[in-house]
Design a protein that fits this description.
Blueprint (H helix, E strand, L loop, with lengths): L1 E2 L2 E2 L1 E2 L2 H7 L9 H5 L6 E10 L2 E14 L9 E5 L14 E4 L4 E5 L7
Antiparallel strand pairs: 1-2, 3-4, 4-5, 4-8, 5-6, 6-7
Length: 113
């Protein structure tokens, strides 16, 4: 995926969980498919820089749910974390992703009426 001038890829959390099932736990597929707008999800961004592979887990706020077109990612969101390693990715960068990319979920607190 490319975001502005930054080229990155999102790691498949399901594959990591399959390989490292005792140490890398993720929410169930059902919970990852039920993510709603305003939820925060953690994604693993990977960038190739000067022959090195750098990865960082960042929080993303879900802003869109549903297919825009066939084969398009199910979700769209914006980065909310301040990356410590991946300095070219900044808060408010847009990102598209699918349930298999989600490694954690935080739902917003209900608003008081």
């Amino acid at each position: 995926m490319e975001n502005q001038s930054v080229v990155y890829r999102l790691e498949n959390a399901e594959e990591r969980n399959h390989i490292y099932s005792t140490t890398f736990r993720i929410p169930s597929r059902e919970k990852r498919e039920e993510v709603q707008i305003r939820d925060l999800v953690k994604l693993i961004f990977t960038v190739e820089e000067s022959g090195n592979t750098l990865s960082e887990r960042l929080w993303v706020k879900v802003c869109r749910k549903g297919l825009v077109e066939p084969d398009a990612p199910l979700y769209g969101g914006v980065v909310t974390s301040n990356p410590a390693i991946l300095k070219d990715i900044i808060p408010s960068d847009k990102v598209d992703f699918d349930p298999e990319h989600i490694c954690d979920i935080v739902c917003p607190s209900p608003e008081k009426e």
